[in-house]
TrEMBL record:
UniProt keyword annotation of Transcription regulation present: yes
One Pfam entry name: IclR_C
Protein name according to UniProt: IclR family transcriptional regulator
Species the sequence originates in: Leekyejoonella antrihumi
BP term (GO), one: negative regulation of DNA-templated transcription
Segment forming the signal sequence: none
InterPro entries: GAF-like_dom_sf, HTH_MetabolicPath_Reg, Tscrpt_reg_IclR_C, Tscrpt_reg_IclR_N, WH-like_DNA-bd_sf, WH_DNA-bd_sf
GO MF: DNA binding; DNA-binding transcription factor activity
Length: 253
């Protein structure tokens, strides 16, 4: 029988695990602030949690490991998104003529989980598994708009890298996040890659954002009429994917 007293080792270990799970990505110093535990104690529990694969270390930060993701259902969610999302991405790419991308939030970053590239020789595309900044680019900022407030604060409290002259600063991002939540879609112009135009929309499951889907291409092909067509097609596809996902959350047919 485990005793959960205030100073209990079990409770301290759980508090470290909860701090990582709630933040999505946290440095040891941030966990110290959240748990009020000594830094040496935090590192000791992190070593244990890493050994048990409940957390992973990435460039000095700690993120949920595969065991924690599996317990929380996130691993299953991502697997289902890969399985269900491909046909929607293919249809979007064919309809718009451009690359369709499905991204998910991983801590304080976004990750390209799946994509169908445009058939044009010159096109916009990421690598599967590529990590992207949450604050720059349509699909990424859509995820940020629906992320927990602690994630938004953690990102915007640090200096933001300007990838292009169109990359937004902190004040513009904060204002834009409110607009994104109201409108339900986002259009970006060259924020992450020069000359790119992207339209993004969210996919919700059980009241929370599961992923964002983006269609993107070079500005020479992506006119205002293209943006209008892409937005309508994208919003319809995201709604359909959300309905299918909620109908078959565990791969049931």
């Amino acid at each position: 029988m485990v005793r959960l007293d205030q100073g209990g080792s079990f409770q301290r270990g759980l508090s470290v695990l909860v701090a990582v799970a709630e933040a999505g990505e946290a440095r040891a110093e941030e966990i110290v602030r959240d748990t009020e535990l000594p830094l040496s104690t935090v590192y000791r529990y992190l070593r244990t949690l890493r050994t048990m694969e409940f957390v992973e270390e990435r460039d000095g930060s700690y993120v949920p490991g595969w065991r924690l993701l599996e317990l929380s259902g996130q691993q299953l969610t991502r697997t289902r998104l890969v399985e269900l999302g491909h046909s929607f991405l293919r249809e979007l790419s064919e309809s718009t003529g451009e690359t369709a991308v499905l991204t998910v939030r991983v801590g304080t970053q976004a990750m390209c989980l799946r994509q169908v590239e445009s058939r044009h020789p010159i096109r916009m595309a990421f690598k599967i598994g590529q990590l992207l900044p949450l604050y720059a680019g349509a699909g990424q900022r859509m995820l940020l708009a629906h992320a927990p407030e602690t994630v938004v604060e953690r990102i915007l409290d640090h200096p933001l890298r300007h990838f292009t002259t169109a990359t937004m600063d902190r004040e513009h991002i904060l204002h834009d996040l409110q607009q994104i939540r109201r409108s339900g879609f986002l259009v970006s112009h060259g924020e992450l890659s020069e000359g790119a135009v992207a339209v993004a929309a969210p996919v919700f499951a059980d009241g929370e954002i599961a992923c964002s889907i983006t269609v993107a291409g070079p500005k020479d092909r992506c006119s205002r009429s293209w943006v209008k067509h892409a937005r309508g097609t994208l919003l319809m596809s995201c709604q359909q994917l959300a309905e299918v996902f909620e109908q078959h959350p565990s791969g049931q047919s």
